[in-house]
């Protein structure tokens, strides 16, 4: 009986039977050789793909780890700190940069904290408020104004100079008015002593869309100035009285800070904004000059040390990615916020 006819399974290590010549030798189909080659190519291709996938997997794991280490390095790195290394006498600098609001870099907490550090430092011979802000919250501005007045009283030998760069308007000028002297560039925008509050009314659009407003309140004025309800004349009159009252507080603060240096001009508190040159003629600023000019020529100590509060690196990265963009748009659409502008 031949190997082909035997029912006994081949054992491990058995040598394959030698092919026999002759008419009775079994033959494989002609296609079987090509099939085996195709199967071999497929297996090799799968193995190659697996090796490639493993290599890419290792690469992306290393890339993720490198990204995490870089992120940690950014968060804990020393650059962007609030206080430069210094030795000896210097002029302290505190920045008021951007919108003045509780959730912004130029918040009262940040500015006041920086001012206190600057005043408490014995080697700081004077303090410069470097301002580049369009204004913002009257409450935040008022906090900073009051603290500057308090610190000036506590440290009478340490003067405060406000230096306006591009713009020092509204709430930013409110803060500047607390300084001993104010300087600006001839082209700076200065002033805008006024109060503004705004919002949107959606009643017309709701009527066109067939949307019905359903609002339930306890308290007759709880839905005061609701943007989805028709405007009420008595509500507008009351809100105008609030704006006028806040405006008078602003005017009183400027008059207290500037005194008889202000010109007798009825437009001064109308909300107009002036160039630095015009502001000097109106008594809103005392002179024209930059931060370095004031430190060198007015204070007499040109070494500057920045005491400003800085945004954390991680927060800065998130903001650059625009995470809060949508929140800002919604806030502008539905909120009526009182601001000094």
Outline the structure in words.
The protein has 341 residues and is α/β, with parallel strands linked by helices. Helices cover 43% and strands 15% of the residues. The chain is built from ten helices and ten strands. Strands 1, 2, 3, 4, 5, 7, 8 and 9 form an eight-stranded mixed sheet that branches. Helix 4 links the parallel strand 3 and strand 4. Helix 2 packs parallel to helix 3. The longest helix is centred in the N-terminal third of the chain and has 45 residues. It is flat and about 110 Å long. The N terminus is likely disordered.
Poorly predicted runs of 5 or more residues: 1-6, 77-85, 317-336
- End-to-end Cα distance, whole Å, is 109 Å
Radius of gyration: 37 Å
Based on helices, strands and strand pairing, what is the structural class? alpha/beta
* Percent in helix: 40-55%
Question: Which percent band covers the strand fraction?
Answer: 5-15%
Mean pLDDT level: 81
Summed up, the helix count is 10
- Please tally the β strands and state the result: 10
Q: Major sheet, described briefly?
A: 8 strands, mixed
> What is the chain-wise order of helices and strands?
HEHEHEHEEEHHEHEHEHHE
Identify the overall geometry: flat
Short description:
With 341 residues, the chain is α/β, with parallel strands linked by helices.
Structure characteristics:
single chain, 341 residues, alpha/beta, eight-stranded mixed β-sheet, two-stranded antiparallel ribbon, 10 helices, 15% strand, flat, disordered N terminus
Secondary structure layout plus pairing:
Layout: H1 32-76, E1 90-97, H2 108-120, E2 124-133, H3 138-154, E3 160-169, H4 171-176, E4 181-184, E5 189-191, E6 195-198, H5 203-209, H6 233-258, E7 273-275, H7 276-282, E8 287-288, H8 291-299, E9 304-306, H9 313-320, H10 325-334, E10 337-340
Helix pairs in contact: 2-3
